[in-house]
Amino acid sequence: MSLDTRTVRRIAKLARIGIDDAEAEGLARELGGILGWVEQLDEVEIAGVPPMIGTGLAAPRAREDVVTDGTVTGGACREAVLSNAPDRVEAFFTVPKVVE
Amino acid sequence: MAGMTLASARKALEARKISAVELVEAHIGAVDSLDGQLNAFITTSFDRARAAARAADERIAKGEAGLLEGLPLGIKDLFCTEGVRTTAASNILRDFVPPYESTVTANLLKQGAVFLGKLNLDEFAMGSTNLTSAFGGVTNPWRREGSDAKLVPGGSSGGSAAAVAAGLVLGATGTDTGGSIRQPAAYCGVAGVKPTYGRCSRFGVIAFASSLDQAGPMARTLEDCALMLEAMAGFDPKDSTSVDRPVPRYTEALERGVRGLKVGIPKEYRVDGMPPEIDALWEQGIAWLREAGAEPVEVSLPHTKYGLPTYYIAALAEASSNLARYDGVRFGARVPGASLDALYEATRREGFGEEVRRRILMGTYVLSSGYYDAYYLRAQKVRTRIQHDFLAAFEKVDVLLTPTAPSAAFAWDEKPDDPVQVYLNDVFTVPASLAGAPALSLPAGLDRQGLPLGLQLIGRYFDEETLFAAGRVMEKAAGFTHRPAIVAEGLA
Amino acid sequence: MSYVIEGRTGAWEIVVGLEVHAQVISNAKLFSGASAAYGGEPNTHVSLIDAGFPGMLPVLNHECVAQAVRTGLGLNATIHLESRFDRKNYFYADLPQGYQISQFAHPIVGEGKVLIDLADGGQREIGITRLHLEQDAGKSMHDQDPTRSFIDLNRAGVALMEIVSEPDIRSPEEAGAYLRKLRQILRYIGTCDGNMEEGSMRADVNVSVRKAGEAYRTRCEIKNVNSIRFVMQAIEVEAARQVEIWESGGVVDQETRLFDSARGETRSLRTKEDAHDYRYFPDPDLLPLVISRDWVEALKAALPELPEAKRLRLEAEYGVSRYESGVLTAEQAVADFYEEVAKASDPKLAVNWMLGDFFAALNRTGKSIDESPVSAAGLSELLALIKDATINGKIAKDVLEAMVETGESAAEIVERKGLRQVTDTGAIEGAIRDILAANADKVAEYKSGKEKLFGFFVGQTMKAMKGKGNPAMVNDLLARLLAE
After folding, report:
1. H-helix or E-strand containing C473?
2. Count of the separate structural domains present in chain B
3. For all residues of chain C together, what is the average pLDDT?
4. C54 and B325: CB-CB below 8 Å?
5. Are strands C139-141 and C148-152 parallel, antiparallel or unpaired?
6. Are C392 and C421 in contact (CB under 8 A)?
7. pLDDT tens digit sequence for C115-169
8. Which of B453, C139, C259, C475 holds its CA 20 to 30 A away from the CA of B322?
9. What are the residues facing C7 on neighbouring strands?
10. What is the count of structural domains for chain A?
11. Between B346, B368, B418, which is nearest A18 by CB?
12. Total H helices, total E strands in chain B
């Protein structure tokens, strides 16, 4: 299994991780190597086997429809939510202007 | 204070032979003098620790001591701690101060534990060497005989293992996704327990792979691990995968013995190229259990060899999604960009280290259109088969015994360049993680270079008690009293 | 019916399917304990879970599941006892986790159907493909700063139901009827307030065109249309655009478009379809959602009467017409109001008055039925006064107007203004004789055959009696006296 650099770029774009040309080549090689290695799973008979979704040990559970979090008046919780923001204006997070 | 353990320190505090303040100061001194060599701590919180120690002494005086009152612990820097920087050993969270406390650390605090600080790890727990940390690698306190080569502590909970081994803390929290508690425990000659998936809450633990991540204790003895796990474990309504069942008194299971217990020896774990010393130690472990009245039985876990590739697909797919939230918008480091995408791409390129970026890309690939069935879905089906292997084995036996890792700790500069070769360190630990089964590692002997080796026990779902009982039998038989080259005199 | 676009090459049929995002009525969000209420200061209805903080985990809100099941039952749909939450992975400024939790592969509700009412009185069945639960995203504001967009996460994590229709819709009118019917059902059940202005109901519109008998051609998706009128307009202009492309030898690209209501056109969002790769996979933080048959049955038993059933019952029970039942059941509150009035007075009188003067009064005052200045009991009292001949219909209109204005009861107004109808034969006869005497020329004309003048005499008499004469008696007596 080998990966071309075009695919690596597409994946990097999807994952929003910037890469340069040299990196793309190295990554194509490394990821290709890992993919080659995982191909041994093709040997396993999986017909009729369900995918594992959890261990099945926890009982299904849901919360009551009660407001227990966040604040309606803006107070401690809003500050907690905003306290680590790398850039904020008043009570907003910010990003570079998105043109729609 | 020679050979101190959590349990012995607890007794000493109870008997008022020592105060919590003295105990904590002694450990702070050890961190100050030794951590320059180890780099086990990313962040220390000594002021908080001192205040907590004084409060602990007051509670002890009033007879209100919790299970871990006044005992100094280290916290893997993957557990969010309110008001104390939490980094996941990543640049992207270099300055992140959570306004919340993880359930596991909250449980420990409730029992009076004193946190000395946040321990180093592989970035986002992705690695088995602790060399991928953005805060520098951790040095294993052990040395090969006659060598000064810096060895890796294993990973990802390498800072936890090193700090416990060197006596900087009496115990530490770890997290285990594919072996991240057990493998570093083995490399550093300490005990570590990965409980059943769902036993410890994942709330507030920075996620690597949600379906595999599980917190657990690391300490110098199994008794200490049992004490810590009693405090850490428990149902948490804030984690949908948490299991609602009572937490047993693990310490009471320790001396239960193994008479009549059937111990499975999975034949697929006898892999090619395993060092003869590890084979020999495994045989020794079987003999110890047999002598104590257990019955060794050979069992088969036919899909063992598929564990690692299955693990990497499942874990990396989940990781690629779990790490999408580190985008430089609401918290964490931001690298400016002219557009939103440019900001994302620069932030995530700079913020994540090489191994994390590689794993995110790999996980993105296996989930991407056209590949989902071939990789992710197939891996989850193989995972079902691996789980069934364990369920079938546990119809015949009560516990499984295997080596923890295929080698002893290796030197920093011996880390293979090929990522797949690095992944092979987890070959024995990954299958139990995939099945969600509980497992522990205990130090059982030294290799011919004088490095510790571990044995692993794997148990039935929620049967940590049998693990502790069988482990305790081997712990006593092994009489592992070796100490590493770098150690706080009198504390470990 | 049959809506077609007459192109240069012949008639084109349009094919429309709607994906409606309906905000679930609940106190808290789908996976967190933060408030789901609309509005609020920026970033105040936000928990650390909604903001995607490290180590935060979702726990499902039970009521949101119940709301989805109720809605599914209201759409005559299959309820799946086991469903699952997947992660839909993409990056956007207002998507904190980097993924939306949604039910992609295994939705909670499967196929169902909705009966829509057409303008000609006919009905059509529109198939429902599925309904699933998912998280809403936050809000980006682009106009507050020259270089930055601002992010408010109050909406992030609020529960939405995505209701997907089959491509059964064949005209803008049907699309409008479908949305109105859907909104009506949701409001009846109380699972979504259907308020499109506040964005609690939005539609993605899939439009394609084809010649009769053809297979489907390429469709375009018009995103996030926020009113029924705009949906209808968007379909119309988009279908025309596609016809124009096909007829001039071009090819319609499958793409996402936006409806620009100011310009009355759709335009491409210029996103490459292959740039999206959502990498769905089951959310490992959540267990499969398993519900019991018994619970579904209990929810079903507790459902209110739905619009179509109510309509049929009103027709059978009160003898209202098909048209009238449609108007009366458009809103549950109207139907309730009607039933109260019908029971207390007369069903026929009640429907006439509600659809006539009563609705006119509501319109005039800009009030909804819930805020009506006249209660159901008040209207019943007025109708009772008509029925027992205390007042006549003409006077009753004035009384209703006074009720709306003053809030007084009908009886109070009638007494205060002395509006009781006059049924004293002598008084009526006296009034008629005065009118006839004063209009001898018209009487002569009438007698020479100009019978139309009868109405003139009635009018004059009623006027003289300030509208209070009993109309039947006035008619009888007038006929007799003119014949003298």
Report:
1. helix C471-483
2. 1
3. 93
4. yes
5. antiparallel
6. yes
7. 999 988 889 999 999 999 999 999 999 999 999 999 999 999 999 999 999 999 9
8. C139
9. C10
10. 1
11. B346
12. 16, 11
Asked whether residue A85 is assigned to any structural domain, the reply reads no
pLDDT at C272: 53
CB C225 within 8 A of CB C234: yes
Closest among C59, C2, C64, C1 to C27, alpha carbons compared: C64
Residue B260 tokens read as 């009549």
| ipTM of the prediction greater than 0.85, yes or no | yes
Task: Examine the fold and report which residue of C255, C273, C297 is the final residue of a domain before the chain moves on.
Answer: C297
The whole domain housing C247 covers 4-297
Indicate if C342 and C207 belong to the same structural domain: no
B407 tagged catalytic: no
Beta-carbon count within 10 A of C10 CB: 11
SS3 B171: strand
Chain A residues near residue C284 by CB distance under 8 angstroms: 53-54
Token pair, residue B1, equals: 């204070």
Categorize the per-residue pLDDT at A71 as very low, low, confident or very high, splitting at 50, 70 and 90: low
Query: DSSP per residue over C378-393, as a string?
Result: HHHHHHHHHHTTSS-H
Helix-helix angle B20-38:B46-61, to 10 degrees = 150
Using CA atoms, how far apart are residues B269 and B456, in angstroms rounded to an integer?
A: 11
Closest CA–CA distance from residue C21 to any residue of chain B (Å): 24
Q: Where are the beta strands (DSSP E) in C289-371?
A: 289-290
Domain encompassing residue A11: 5-42
Q: Is B344 on the interface with A (CB under 8 A)?
A: yes
- CATH number of the domain within which C438 lies: 1.10.10.410
Structural domains in chain C (count): 3
Catalytic residue among B45, B180, B201, B242: B180
Count of CB atoms situated within 10 Å of the CB of C352: 16
Q: Whole-angstrom Cα distance, residue B325 to residue C49?
A: 11
Which is it for strands B41-44 and B114-119: parallel, antiparallel or unpaired? antiparallel
One domain, residues C412 and C439: no
